[in-house]
């Protein structure tokens, strides 16, 4: 069961997106604008190559 590069990148990107979404939830209250700004910058797309490379290194070294 091998995965090509495009599938690997898509799988890891989806994992990272889900984790970021869970870590920075939509909030109401005094910090709602701060959370909205954080979500905008983190979930706007792109900027996923470094975390994907970090996950690849961890997997290569026998981690998760």
What does this structure look like?
The protein is mostly helical. 67% of the residues lie in helices and 0% in strands. Helix 1 crosses helix 3. The radius of gyration is 15 Å and the shape is elongated.
List keywords for this structure.
64 residues; 3 helices; mainly alpha
Which overall shape is indicated by the principal axes computed on the Cα atoms?
elongated
Q: Number of helix segments?
A: 3
Characterize the biggest β-sheet.
Answer: none
Total strand count, please?
0
Rg calc: 15 Å
Classification by helices and strands: mainly alpha
Question: What fraction strand?
Answer: under 5%
Arithmetic mean pLDDT = 88
> Helical residue percent?
55-70%
Distance between the termini: 18 Å
Q: List the uncertain runs.
A: none
What are the secondary-structure elements, in order, as H or E? Answer: HHH
Task: Spell out the blueprint of helices and strands.
Elements: H1 5-23, H2 32-43, H3 49-60
Short description:
The chain is mainly alpha-helical and 64 residues long. The protein contains 3 helices and no strands.
């Amino acid at each position: 069961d091998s995965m090509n590069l495009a599938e690997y990148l898509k799988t890891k990107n989806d994992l990272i997106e889900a984790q970021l979404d869970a870590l920075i939830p939509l909030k109401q209250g005094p910090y709602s604008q701060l959370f909205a700004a954080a979500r905008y910058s983190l979930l706007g797309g792109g900027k996923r190559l470094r975390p994907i490379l970090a996950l690849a290194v961890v997997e290569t070294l026998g981690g998760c």
